[in-house]
Amino acid sequence: MVRISALVPALLAVLPCAAVHADGLAIRARKVLLAELDGRQFLDNAVVLVEDGRIVAVGAADEVVVPDGYELIDAGDQWISPGMIDLHSHVGGPSGDLNGTVYQINPGLRISSAVVPNNMILKRAVAGGVTTVLFIPGSGSNMGGQGILMKTDAESYEAGRVRDPGSLKVAQGDNPTRWGYGMGRQMMNFHLRTTLRKGRAYAQRWKAYEEGRGPKPEREIQRDLFRSLFARETQVSTHTQYYQLVMMSIAMLAGEFGLDTYIDHGSFDSYLTTDQAKPLGVAAILGPREVMWPRPPRYRTDGQAHGTAWGFQKEGHDRIGFNTDAVGLGSFTVAQEELSTQAAMSVRYGLDDSSMEGVRGLTIIPATAAGIADRVGSIEVGKDADLLITTGDPADPRSAVTRVLIGGVIVYDTEHDRRRW
Questions:
Q1: Which ranges of 290-402 does DSSP label H, i.e. alpha helix?
Q2: Which residues contact 170 (CB under 8 A, 6 or more apart)?
Q3: pLDDT, tens only, 203-226
């Protein structure tokens, strides 16, 4: 073995977009953004070692020993950061499957059947540094169905799947009111509460059977998801915007039923729910609207426009992330490859970024909210080697993504594959 400093004269050229055929990969850069949830945030002049698709070491370049046979990439003055994660995306398959709504409540509907791996819009996502998305049904119904957490660059469904089900999609707001006969918020709450009570009873019967305390229940496929939900093995991702709607979503889903829940829209005055959200562990994953206009209702003295993330931070929330609600080309939502711009907008409109809140909101915060922080979201030993090489802070729009690795494989490199469509 030799130290990395001894290898500088023999640095290899940047690899094309292909799997690494050596024993492993070493990437050296001026700055490595670790983005640990409660630990270190960055290292200067550091190296990351990758083997079999996972991170096996990270540390100062003059301390980490690079094993013989490793390929070496010297990123120079560029930065390494974790891949970005979007928890509100509709681009994992054809947009025609956005709303497969027949009933207002569809807990058994699975978006996984609509996945189209490596589609054109996912390729754009990769170029923008987005490596994992939660592909979910649309908000046309009150309970749209089950989402799937998936990698953005995979040749097959199986290779791309991170977790299925990735969430139960709930929509509280204006969109479900347009369904059918038109449904008000009172009826939405009635539907949700009734369905969740039945789902909880179903999960309890199965738990009793598994623990030898009752007979085997009859299987109801549409309610199978509730076994995972009430075991807190998956989450409720709730499309909810205004204060009253966000407040009711938190109170019912996280408070009354004890479900692992996060806000995956959050706009306008939703930050006023921080006193409820934070004690219940409800993360605020915000987007596509990041700006409050004309002024936030609780702070009307400075006459300035502020961001919703600023409001949550001002109220004391420390689990703030960003999403796009990406739909497809030419849509009115934020494009999937522009996820980083959501963080940049929040910083522009007041979010204090002095402790990497922008990058954390793109990486470790959504990973933690979605229950996949054991695999992605930070640069730590044992996690998937989903890495970005950028010209600077990835939450700064002046920076560019130059290379993307997913599972230790270079899947995008601007020297070979700059995407312009």
A1: 308-314, 339-348, 357-362, 364-369
A2: 142, 143, 144, 192, 236, 237, 238, 239, 240, 249, 253
A3: 999 999 999 999 999 999 999 999
Q: Which residues contact 17 (CB under 8 A, 6 or more apart)?
A: 410, 411, 412, 413, 416, 417
What number of other Cβ atoms are within 10 A of residue 90's Cβ?
Answer: 29
pLDDT one-digit tens code per residue, 42-83: 999 999 999 999 999 999 999 999 999 999 999 999 999 999
CATH code reported for the domain at 84-369: 3.20.20.140
Which residue type sits at 277? A
Q: 349 near 290, Cβ under 8 Å? A: yes
Strand 130-135, strand 84-89: pairing:
parallel
CATH of domain 2-82+381-417: 2.30.40.10
CB 51, CB 99: distance < 8 Å = no
The domain limits of the chain are 2-82+381-417, 84-369
Instruction: State pTM to two decimals.
Output: 0.92
Pairing of strands 79-82, 387-390: antiparallel
CB atoms within 10 A of CB 206: 19
